[in-house]
Amino acid sequence: MHENVALRALRAEDPEMIAAAFAAQGWRKPATQYLAYLRQQEAGARDVIVAEVAGDFAGYVTIVWESDYLPFRVAGIPEIVDLNVLIKYRRQGIATALLDRAERRISKRACVAGIGVGLTADYGAAQILYVKRGYRPDGRGLAARGVALQSGDQATVDDDLTLHLTKLVMRPKRPRSTAIVETPQGILLAAMANGVFLLPGGGIETNESAAAAVIRELHEETGLFAESVIYLFDHESSSSQHHVFYVQAHGQPQLCGETRYLAYHTPGADLRMSAGAQAIVARFAALKAAQPEFFAALAMLRERATTG
């Protein structure tokens, strides 16, 4: 990538300048197009990323958050649209820098990025670039003006005839059921061979409810049998989407399955806990502080069940 490239959002003073830059190389791109982009950016419908080299305009790319291409729109796939780099700045990594930024921005809101590419030789460089970056056909064949074509349809081979591609830009986070089990010693934790303590729980199987998963995982990991399961909140960690339950259980925790260590969290405990487990325990502590009567009643029920 060019060492002096800088990326920024489209500004109010840009449309005339961009149109003039393309006109200088013989391309007609009216300023009204970029004024429309600016209004869409202000409305949150489109992001426009502008590239500069040593302060000079070099190119741009846009992200349309609700694609005009129906299969993308239905699936919630943002589309990268209108990637353009001035001829004099090509083969200097500008397009790569623009696409990198666009994909990172999309990854904060969606797992998949979409893009459409023309089929004529004029788009040959773009076709090669997108394949190298991991884009693959979406499997719906050709489209004209955003509408998928069917067998027997007739279409003019021009800039409106496209093939749409997709790329996974963020791994979907695994849904996980997670148990908070309070005991007299503290909140129950379990660790596998790596020694990092987690709250008991695990992945939700096909056709299994989140509550059923937490009951199953708790027993498989600790041998405990759930007596009551109360949903608390959802929590998103770096790798999982947790459905967190407050579980009252009977039995003696023991090493089961892949569990190699058991421990108990108390305030100030020196344990090697995952960041996700730490965050969930902190949220639980805040919830208990906000609703002390509710959790006191649960504790009373647990004591009665134990003594009874």
Supply database-style keywords.
308 residues, alpha+beta, Aminopeptidase, Nucleoside Triphosphate Pyrophosphohydrolase, eight-stranded mixed sheet, four-stranded mixed sheet
Task: Please explain how this structure is put together.
The chain has 308 residues and is an alpha+beta fold. The chain has two domains: 5-168, Gcn5-related N-acetyltransferase (GNAT) (Aminopeptidase); 174-307, Nucleoside Triphosphate Pyrophosphohydrolase, CATH 3.90.79. It has helices spanning 14-23, 31-43, 70-75, 94-107, 124-132, 210-222, 275-290, 292-307, and strands at residues 5-9, 46-53, 56-64, 79-85, 112-118, 136-144, 147-148, 161-168, 174-180, 182-183, 186-191, 197-198, 201-203, 225-236, 240-250, 261-265. An eight-stranded mixed sheet has the order 1-2-3-4-5-8-6-7, with helices on both faces. A four-stranded mixed sheet has the order 13-9-15-14, sandwiched between helices. Strands 10, 11, 12 and 16 form a four-stranded antiparallel sheet that branches. A hairpin with a 5-residue loop joins strand 11 and strand 12. The radius of gyration is 27 Å and the shape is elongated.
